[in-house]
Amino acid sequence: MTDTWYSIREPQAKLTQGDIITECPLLTWETPKADAGEALGPTPVDSVDRLSRMAEARKADVVVMTQACDLAQSKVSNVVLCPCLPLSKFKVRWEDSEKSRNQVPSPKAWKRLCDDIKDGYMWNLFMMDSLPESEITTEHRIVDFHAIFTVPRTFIETLLVERGAKRLSLLPPYREHLSQSFARYFMRVGLPQNIKPVW
């Protein structure tokens, strides 16, 4: 097993699982909020129109989750992406979240959280290693499986060529480890043992 988590890919290289795309344009959904006791006001009759009004564009660093074989064989027209936040930015969000719950974001609690993510105890989060000395560098990154996006493949591929910038991509077996963690997050379910034997 190699200790190197990443390869550096050229702008024209075909998109694959594990590619990290920085500042990727995404569509998110903004749910309208009303003041307590007030109605949301008039809503469009057409549900498609109502949904389109909730769409909001933003940018985020993401990692490609779609299987490499599906991309290589052109079996998909849309690409599944998850945000991968630099650890320093993730820490700021964590500190804000702790303070909003009247908790003290202590160094000990931060270390415990990072250890839990690294060891796979936080089902919705995955930690990528850092790459401090390279043509392209990155700090540790946290992948959040709670937020999942899809973007047209042609859009992503055109964007990468237009930017003309190299990108980092996860190497095996770390790419497969990310995929396995993603699958484990979705398959966590407790099934009732209610099958009555008749044999």
Number of domains: 1
Helix/sheet category: alpha+beta
The pLDDT mean sits at 90
> Sheet with the most strands?
6 strands, antiparallel
How many helices? The count is 6
What Rg do the Cα atoms give? 20 Å
Instruction: Give the number of DSSP strands.
Output: 8
Order of helices and strands: EEHEHEHHEEEHEH
Basic shape: globular
Helix content bin: 25-40%
Distance between the termini: 47 Å
Instruction: Point out poorly predicted stretches.
Output: none
- The percent range for strand residues is 15-25%
Keyphrases for this structure?
199 residues; alpha+beta; six-stranded antiparallel β-sheet
Q: What does the model show?
A:
The chain has six helices and eight strands. The longest helix is centred in the middle third of the chain and has 14 residues, at 87-100. It has 199 residues and is α+β, with helices and mostly antiparallel strands. Helix content is 31%, strand content 25%. The protein starts with 5 loop residues before the first strand and ends in a 12-residue tail after the last helix. Strands 2, 3, 4, 5, 6 and 7 form a six-stranded antiparallel sheet that branches. A two-stranded antiparallel ribbon has the order 1-8. The chain has one domain (6-30, 49-185). It has helices at residues 47-52, 68-72, 87-100, 107-118, 153-163, 174-187, and strands at residues 6-9, 20-29, 55-64, 78-86, 125-128, 141-144, 149-152, 167-170. The radius of gyration is 20 Å and the shape is globular.
